[in-house]
Design a protein that fits this description.
The complex is a heterodimer of chains A (115) and B (113).
Chain A: E1 4-6, E2 11-14, E3 19-25, E4 32-38, E5 45-50, E6 54-58, E7 61-66, E8 71-76, E9 85-92, E10 104-105, E11 109-114
Parallel strand pairs in A: 2-11
Antiparallel strand pairs in A: 1-3, 3-8, 4-5, 4-9, 6-7, 7-8, 9-10, 9-11
Chain B: E1 5-7, E2 10-13, E3 19-24, E4 31-38, E5 42-50, E6 53-57, E7 64-68, E8 74-78, E9 87-94, E10 103-104, E11 108-112
Parallel strand pairs in B: 2-11
Antiparallel strand pairs in B: 1-3, 3-8, 4-5, 4-9, 5-6, 7-8, 9-10, 9-11
The chains are: A mainly beta (115), B mainly beta (113).
Chain lengths: 115, 113
Amino acid sequence: QKEVEQNSGPLSVPEGAIASLNCTYSDRGSQSFFWYRQYSGKSPELIMSIYSNGDKEDGRFTAQLNKASQYVSLLIRDSQPSDSATYLCAVNQDAGGTSYGKLTFGQGTILTVHP
Amino acid sequence: KAGVTQTPRYLIKTRGQQVTLSCSPISGHRSVSWYQQTPGQGLQFLFEYFSETQRNKGNFPGRFSGRQFSNSRSEMNVSTLELGDSALYLCASSVRDGNTEAFFGQGTRLTVV
């Protein structure tokens, strides 16, 4: 089992729709969860961080965390063509402080928003 | 506030050579992590430095090494380059460690021929 798994995609949604991106992780001790967006040929850009169970909203983005189910998701409301990118889920396992600086990434989900 | 700066942006090296990549973190950030990104393996953690000390290391051979200076700037070195080392090398800085938000530089695209 991979440590961090994302829905494989690619995911295609029409402009204005809600895009839903999902991620599961294997280490129950994981503490911190991040979503990055990566445009083709560019580096990852942090768009959301979440540390506690529940929802966290930032503009059109909502991150949801359920530690009991070991599941984190990202919702993008009113999707725009400029949202077309690869979305990476990243988890910091922080097992007793030994995972300093180490983010474990999923393979990414390619999102295409078509006009 | 300036972001994470990586130099050079592009490199072409020959098998067997060595290479040094540089990373300047965001001002005030003391943790610097390095990642390798390839189409097949995705983003893989190389190592992390904090206050000039390596605190964590990924599963890469000893040819991959790094260091951090007193001003938090970091370098990574790859010796005896192999074709498989061709990748995008990314540096990320954070205030303290992986539990805080990490911001990536633009990366160094290394091609080994």
